Hints:
single chain; 211 residues; Hepatocyte Growth Factor; five-stranded antiparallel sheet; two-stranded antiparallel sheet; 3 helices; Hepatocyte growth factor-like protein
Amino acid sequence: MCAGVSPNIWYQGAPALQFEPGLNRYLDSQHASLLFSTGYRSPLNDFQRSEGRELVPTAWNSARVLLLPGLNLEDCATRCSQSLDCRAFNYETRPTVTCKHLPWVGDGNNAEVKRNVNCDLYEKKVYVRKCIVSKGEDYRGKVFTTRSGLTCQQWWSKFPHDHRWTPTATNGLELNYCRNPDGDRIGPWCYTTDPERRYESCNIPQCKDGI
Length: 211
């Protein structure tokens, strides 16, 4: 937890869970029971947290950061979850509380992960995990080779294989990364650059834990 963050955890649609300072226990067990009985799922569950880290954009990308001062942590996460342009966010607590939405995660050349004791980095799990859940319809990783080692064809390209798919902001068909837009039971797949092999599974492993 960043310095300055309140020990009270607030959830939309449910009473706050109060922690007694120094004892780390609930003061009102009925509040906890109500929270779990409502089936509330925190938007933070969709993010991987890196404590004391900040994703700092390169100078030429700094204008793409969306600043949202004053938002609480869950509102910051909710807005990022609902935005097609947000893949991660920095949550700063000092000198002021600031939510910073980012269009990347920390795995490329657009930004660099750095230490910052006043900030936590939250990245959407679908963009950073190396495994798939169920059939992998929401997989947004960067694997671009098939199970037999063939390079994937760009989704915008119709060569060497013609197809019906068109990349959009919502379907995740990005560059030549493995995807599963049709919910195929084989999991994420791609058209290949081999004229003799139309498409093939990418053999991305299943996640062992429910993440």
